[in-house]
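USER:
Try writing one entry.

ASSISTANT:
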Amino acid sequence: MSAPGAVVAEFARAEEMVAALRAVRDAGWQRIDAHGPYPVPEAAEIIGTRGWPVAAIAVGAGILGGALQYGAQWYLSVHDYPLNVGGRPLHAWPLFLPATYIVAVLWAAVAALLGMLWLNGLPRLHHPVFAAPGFERAMEDRFFVSILPAAGEASRAEALLRAQPGALRVERVP
């Protein structure tokens, strides 16, 4: 059999999955993941997921989009096509703010979506853990821990996961 794509362990409870994740992390494994029917904050902390990159991308894109929108309005109203309507100044900044705000929010929302997809490596239509027997229950009532081992390390990963209390099943998947 060729080197596995992943070693996957199935658990009935979130607490068992979190304990297994701690043991796997403490054993030095870096390429680990957790899957379950609902978010488990402790699992996210153990794996090391971070939410701030998406927020930074959204804020940066919002500021850039708002600045570009405001700059375009200013340039068009003051330099390119100046019109004196009812005695208002050419640079009527209060009138520029609603459109600037709307465009900034739209840029931030689109950047947050694209940034989240990019940081999560999506769209990914197939992952090795999808081939694990019973993995469809990750959306119902089971919790899974997966390790993506380097070549020759699958036996060590499998032994570690089998030693975890509460492991219902441990499988190597291609």
Summary: The chain has two domains: 6-37+141-173, 52-119. The first strand starts at residue 6 and ends at 11.
